[in-house]
């Protein structure tokens, strides 16, 4: 079997990181493949090794973003003890990984169905993770006996409102602060 060299794999990862930085800063809807290739100082054929079209490239970069975000957040909560602190760290971590995302990126993400679906899938995964953390806290007696699935659904609903800009529009809170506030309200509301 012909495996990619470590250089090719490293270069591929670097390109995804560069694409992600570009998209987070400026969004992606307005960019053509020619413009993207020019900005990354690579050829369009190099981009085609990552994905077969701009749409597929945007989706692949979105997957790359959320995969890295998930890894980063999970690493942040690894050494944290106590369900309350773990939830605060988790939701604050979500806010932190979204901090570099420009308003244009978030608008483009919401407007482009394949990327939005990746975000929504990750929101569901995050809600299940928060549900598991709540359940752990209830079992440990740190939280009162609450309906963990309902609390997780509440979190998921707010995560979508944050992503779509509704929270910023009605409260003025940026995404990172909104996630910290969500963590604070949630954990205070379910504490034993």
Automatic annotation (TrEMBL):
Keyword Transcription included in the entry's annotation: yes
Keyword terms: DNA-binding, Transcription, Transcription regulation
InterPro entries associated with the record: Homeodomain-like_sf, HTH-type_TetR-like_transc_reg, HTH_TetR, Tet_transcr_reg_TetR-rel_C_sf
Signal peptide: none
DNA-binding region, residues: 32-51
Species of provenance: Hoyosella subflava (strain DSM 45089 / JCM 17490 / NBRC 109087 / DQS3-9A1) (Amycolicicoccus subflavus)
Top-level lineage group: Bacteria
Stretches assigned to the HTH tetR-type domain: 9-69
One GO MF term attached to the UniProt entry: transcription cis-regulatory region binding
Protein name as catalogued: Putative transcriptional regulator
